[in-house]
Each structure stands twice: as C-alpha cells, then as structure tokens.
Amino acid sequence: MITSSSSFCFCSTLILCLIIATLIAPSTSNYLSDICIKSKSPKFCLQVFGLNPHRRPYELTLEAINLTLTNASEITKKIHIFTDQTNDFNLKDIYNYCLDYYQFVIDTLRRAQENFLERDQYFDVNDAGIIAQLNAFRCENEFQRKWGYVYDSTLAKDNESLGIFGSIVVSAVGFLYNSTLVKK
Ligand SMILES: *[C@@H]1O[C@H](CO)[C@@H](O)[C@H](O)[C@H]1NC(C)=O
Ligand SMILES: *[C@@H]1O[C@H](CO)[C@@H](O)[C@H](O)[C@H]1NC(C)=O
Ligand SMILES: *[C@@H]1O[C@H](CO)[C@@H](O)[C@H](O)[C@H]1NC(C)=O
Ligand SMILES: *[C@@H]1O[C@H](CO)[C@@H](O)[C@H](O)[C@H]1NC(C)=O
C-alpha cells in the first residue's frame, strides 16, 4: 500500500487512521458487555463468554449460537438418560415431549448457523434464539400438565440455562441488525 508516495501523504493517512481507530475502539471493546446487559442474565452471559472483550457482534453472535447448540445437545443427552432411568410412564411421556422441543431448537439453530456462515443471512438467528427460549419453557410446562399428578421438574435448571442462552443469541444478533460493522 505504501509505495513511493510522499511522506506527507503517508503521515496524514496514519493520523487519519489513528483518529478513526480511537473513535471505533471504545464501542468495539464494549460489545460483549452491551450484548450481555440486554440478555436475561448479564452475569451468566459474561461467565459463558469468558474474558476476552475484544470481539465484534459477528463473532459474538456465532459464539452465542455455538454455545446454545452445545447446551441444547447436552440437555438432550441428559433427557435420554433420564428417560432410560424412569419406569413412570407419565415422566417418559413428558421427556418425549421435551426431546421433541429440544430437537426442534437444535434443528432451527443449525439451519440459522448455516445461513449465517454460508450466506451471511442472519434473520433466522433471531427466530432461533426466540424458539430456544420458547421451547425450553414449553418443556418445563409439560411437568405441570399431567392431570392428577404433581411433578417436580427435573429440568428446571436446563430450562433456565437454555432460556438465557436463547436471550443471548437474540441480543447478539440485535447488534448485527443495527451495526454498520456487520461483516467479520
Ligand atoms: C462456531 O461453530 C462453527 C461451525 O461449527 C465454526 O465454524 C465457528 O468457528 C465457531 N465460531 C465460534 C466463534 O465459536
Ligand atoms: C448448560 O449450560 C450451563 C451454563 O454453562 C451449564 O451450567 C449446564 O451444566 C449446561 N447443561 C448441561 C446439561 O450440560
Ligand atoms: C424457565 O426459565 C425461564 C428463564 O430462562 C424463566 O423465566 C421461566 O420462569 C422458567 N419457566 C418455568 C416454568 O420454570
Ligand atoms: C436495534 O434497533 C431497534 C430499532 O431502533 C431497537 O428497538 C433495538 O433495541 C436495537 N437493538 C439493539 C441491540 O440496540
């Protein structure tokens, strides 16, 4: 880039770059906290993202999708184990509903991730984050739907964590919608 052009030109370009960098720096380094504050639990959000604050909305959105997918998959494994461990048909029934709900979350997130990575389309990401929250809640609700029985939810913590992960996805992609720095 810098060839034999005059040193004056190089110098003013450098200064211009520095000014732009200074203007951009404060906002880019705050994306992590901005995103977390808009989620259901800022504390949980900061914990799962870890310390490096210098990530842009693009990376943070991808990471939020990945973390949510991992959690949903882990929860699915756990529900399979619970299903095998119980002889209660009502509980088995509840778990089957929950497996469907969680599978739908996983499928939706995968599709959204694919469109995001391969086509730079992030409109499905918002929906996937909402579905994660909704279906975690629906699974939790199944425990209360059995007539004549009261079941303590064995998945309350999972409803909670997936719900928060979903809200982080929605929050992160919200910054992409509004950002002029959409691309990596
Ligand atoms: C998220 O997962 C995708 C696909 O597995 C991978 O390409 C990407 O590097 C991951 N991104 C982050 C930020 O973890
Ligand atoms: C889901 O994520 C949360 C937060 O990282 C974690 O505490 C929990 O153990 C995860 N769930 C499963 C089933 O791994
Ligand atoms: C499920 O978790 C969410 C938080 O993610 C919470 O708002 C909601 O009350 C929980 N639902 C039930 C039925 O416990
Ligand atoms: C993005 O802009 C919309 C409309 O102006 C606003 O409602 C929303 O809160 C903004 N999202 C973020 C993450 O700033």
UniProtKB/TrEMBL annotation:
Keywords: Disulfide bond, Signal. It comes from the Eukaryota. The lineage of its organism: Eukaryota, Viridiplantae, Streptophyta, Embryophyta, Tracheophyta. Residues 27-172 form the Pectinesterase inhibitor domain. This is Pectinesterase inhibitor domain-containing protein. Belongs to the PMEI family. Pfam families: PMEI (PF04043). One of its GO terms (molecular function) is pectinesterase inhibitor activity. Residues 1-29 form the signal peptide.
